[in-house]
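Holo model, S-adenosylmethionine. Inputs:
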Amino acid sequence: MVRLNEIREGELAVPLPARQDAGLYFIGTIRTPWTDRLECPRQGRLDGPTCRIDVASPWDRGLEGIEAFEQLEVLYWLNESRRDLMKQSPRNDGEARGVFSLRTPVRPNPIGTSIVRLVKVDGPVLHVKGLDCLDGTPLIDLKPDRTLFNPLAPAQAGDFQVGDEA
Ligand code: SAM
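Output:
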């Protein structure tokens, strides 16, 4: 079962540092049909319900050109998550795995990412399919799907660098 804020058998919680290292701007709000974490999809699907991404002013000024992309990568802040569980038991069976080997919403920085299909752009509102978050989840970034994006800036040395032979 998808977790809420419980600590399960076999899990490891650590004390969180008093100091944080960076700040974020929430650039909008995601509107979805889900109001309970236990009802959300565990991962969004491209044929799922159409959801809305409301981009707030002044960040909506950055949307120009986005309609050219059929798919976007959306980053959002899973604001109801606890952040201290380094080992987690997704099946709640006493078997725990490290957080960084999971796509759990419970992470030190609870950033969720989804690839979504862009259905329509309506001013500062994007209509998309493929999300899995609660209604009201804060938006932190939007980018073209990397598989559809060709860099516009001139090429630079690192682009041509390949690894050493093993
Ligand atoms: N697709 C993203 C990823 O892979 O990074 C998120 C996957 S995460 C497993 C999705 C789950 O996060 C949902 O099923 C729900 O239980 C939980 N969730 C959704 N919105 C949330 C929110 N605002 N705060 C905390 N948890 C949330």
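The CA atoms of residues 86 and 99 lie 5 Å apart. The longest strand covers residues 111-122.
Archived with the compound record.
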